[in-house]
């Protein structure tokens, strides 16, 4: 099928609703870390009511000319009464300062958490912030025959994010959620090429760490009459839009279930050059296993790369990492696994480190620092042992495992202080 050239003008989404975004087909990575084989789009929309015009989001600064040209094809600046900011990351707010200059009478509607970001965004221009109204769920703006209703949907994927529902048309303007990096001039989901890989890749890399917030948002969105989803990137979802809600619910729902839901789970990952860190891991696992209510799993990373453990890690309550020290560092498979943790929600999980070493033994401290940086709790000091662990040292490993398990179950041992010794 030939790809029709996109007009330079706005594209009608429905009578009185237009796409005024921009295409960025040559982008090959987004925010440095995200691959964008098909480029991306920066979607912005115009909604016309009897009493005024609303602009929903803008585009990346370098694409402002495209945005203004399309906007001018469907509205005059003096008609704009309302500017809705669903998300202030620069790929959506880049043209905002200029839009505010051209439509100074417009009132801005944004989430409570976005207020400080708006001020920071306008700081370089030296201009005072526009008239704005912070909004939350069920606040509305009457455009005359058309009503915008706001949904408080934070952390998708920044604290400021919200969705905006056009009640009379059943359209949901969602910001990044339900979007993807996929540039196709045909714009609408039933016309563009197959973008399923990009939709899921986007969820995995942008939304997955915030899946609890995704589920909260779905609880607000699913009861609505949804006839079209208008995200801030990628195809506009007008054909079977509820399928995309269903897919998000599937993706965000925990997919692994312990046989006994009351159990806490501890995963122990290790690598071992000469079997010493392995012996430590086994003793630690045995110690943890001895505490009722804890299920322990032991994994030798030499037998698998990081990706296969992602689901397990997302569901686990505690994570322990064992590494020898080689050239003053933990070994690469451990770092690979630790770097993969940024793609899942691990905040508040318990973390620990251990390892055998020959000369300097930095690995344990380095892993602990990384775990704390990722916001895991590290309540028990890691254990590093020189070369081959003897019986007493293996008992220390066992104690470390017991202690971690007690922290997981909430049965933390309390030391009795010898007051005479303190005195
Ligand atoms: Fe598309 Fe979070 O910006």
Topology:
Elements lengths: L10 E4 L2 E3 L2 E3 L4 E2 L3 E2 L4 E3 L2 E4 L4 E4 L7 H9 L7 E5 L5 H4 L2 H7 L4 E5 L3 H8 L9 E4 L4 E3 L4 E6 L9 E5 L4 E5 L20 H12 L3 H11 L6 E4 L9 H12 L11 E7 L5 H14 L4 E7 L9 H6 L2 E5 L9 H9 L9 E8 L5 H11 L9 E4 L4 H19 L9 H4 L1
Parallel strand pairs: 8-9, 9-10, 10-11, 15-16, 17-18, 17-19, 19-20, 20-21
Antiparallel strand pairs: 1-2, 2-7, 3-6, 4-5, 7-8, 12-13, 13-14, 14-15
Helix pairs in contact: 6-7, 8-12
MU-OXO-diiron binds next to helix 2.
List the total number of helices.
Answer: 13
Computed CA radius of gyration, to the nearest angstrom: 26 Å
Can you tell me the CATH architecture of the largest domain?
A: 4-Layer Sandwich
Number of domains: 2
CATH class of the largest domain: Alpha Beta
Backbone shape: elongated
Ligands in the model, by name, code or SMILES, are:
MU-OXO-diiron
Strand content is 15-25%
Mean pLDDT: 92
Percent helix range? 25-40%
Structural class: alpha/beta
Low-pLDDT segments: none
Count of strand segments: 21
The CATH fourth-level homologous superfamily of the largest domain:
Ribonuclease Z/Hydroxyacylglutathione hydrolase-like
Q: Strand arrangement, largest sheet?
A: 1-2-7-8-9-10-11
For the largest beta-sheet, the strand count, sense and barrel status come to: 7 strands, mixed
CATH topology of the largest domain: Metallo-beta-lactamase, Chain A
Spatial gap, N to C terminus? 86 Å
Written overview of the protein:
This protein is α/β, with parallel strands linked by helices. It folds into two domains: 11-252, Ribonuclease Z/Hydroxyacylglutathione hydrolase-like (Metallo-beta-lactamase, Chain A); 264-407, Flavodoxin domain (Rossmann fold). It contains 13 helices and 21 strands. The strands form five sheets. It has a seven-stranded mixed β-sheet, with no helix packed on it. Strands 12-13-14-15-16 form a five-stranded mixed β-sheet. A five-stranded parallel β-sheet has the order 18-17-19-20-21, with helices on both faces. Helix 6 (211-221) packs antiparallel against helix 7. The longest helix has 19 residues, at 391-409. It is elongated and about 80 Å long. It binds MU-OXO-diiron. MU-OXO-diiron binds at residues 87, 89, 91-92, 157, 176, 232-233. MU-OXO-diiron is lined by residues 87, 89, 91-92, 157, 176, 232-233.
């Amino acid at each position: 099928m030939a790809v029709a050239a996109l007009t330079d003008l706005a594209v009608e989404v429905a009578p009185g609703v237009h796409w005024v975004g921009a295409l960025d087909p040559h982008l090959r990575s987004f925010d440095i870390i995200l691959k964008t084989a098909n480029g991306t789009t920066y979607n912005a929309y115009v909604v016309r009511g009897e009493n005024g015009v609303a602009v929903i989001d803008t585009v990346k600064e370098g694409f402002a000319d495209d945005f203004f040209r399309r906007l001018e094809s469907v509205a005059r600046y003096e008609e704009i009464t309302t500017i809705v900011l669903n998300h202030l990351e620069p790929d959506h707010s880049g043209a905002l300062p200029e839009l505010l200059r051209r439509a100074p009478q417009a009132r801005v509607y944004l989430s409570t958490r976005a207020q400080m970001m708006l001020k920071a965004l306008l700081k370089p221009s030296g201009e005072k912030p526009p008239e704005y109204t912070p909004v939350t769920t069920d606040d509305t703006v009457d455009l005359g025959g058309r009503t915008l209703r706001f949904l408080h949907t934070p952390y998708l994927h920044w604290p400021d994010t919200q969705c905006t529902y056009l009640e009379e048309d059943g359209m949901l303007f969602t910001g990044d959620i339900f979007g993807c990096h996929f540039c196709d001039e045909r714009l609408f989901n039933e016309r563009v090429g197959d973008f399923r890989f990009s939709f899921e890749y986007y969820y995995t890399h942008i939304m997955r760490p915030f899946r609890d917030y995704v589920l909260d948002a779905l609880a607000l969105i699913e009861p609505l009459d949804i006839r079209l989803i208008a995200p801030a990137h990628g195809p506009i979802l007008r054909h079977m839009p509820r399928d995309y809600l269903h897919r998000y619910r599937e993706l965000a729902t925990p997919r692994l279930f312990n046989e006994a839901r009351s159990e806490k789970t501890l995963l122990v990952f290790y690598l071992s050059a000469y079997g010493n860190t392995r012996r430590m891991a086994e003793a630690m696992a045995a110690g943890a296993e001895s505490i009722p209510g804890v299920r322990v799993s032991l994994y030798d990373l030499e037998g698998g790369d990081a990706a296969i453990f992602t689901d397990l890690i997302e569901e686990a309550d505690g994570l322990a990492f064992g590494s020898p020290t080689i050239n003053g560092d933990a070994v690469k498979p451990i770092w690979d696994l630790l770097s993969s943790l940024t793609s899942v929600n691990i905040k508040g999980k318990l973390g620990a480190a251990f390892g055998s070493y020959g000369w300097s033994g930095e690995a344990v401290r380095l892993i602990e620092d990384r775990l704390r940086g990722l916001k895991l709790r590290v309540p028990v000091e890691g254990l590093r042992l020189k070369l081959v662990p003897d019986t007493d040292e293996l008992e220390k490993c066992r104690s470390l495992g017991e202690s971690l398990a007690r922290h997981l179950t909430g049965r933390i041992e309390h030391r009795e202080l010898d007051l005479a010794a303190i005195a």
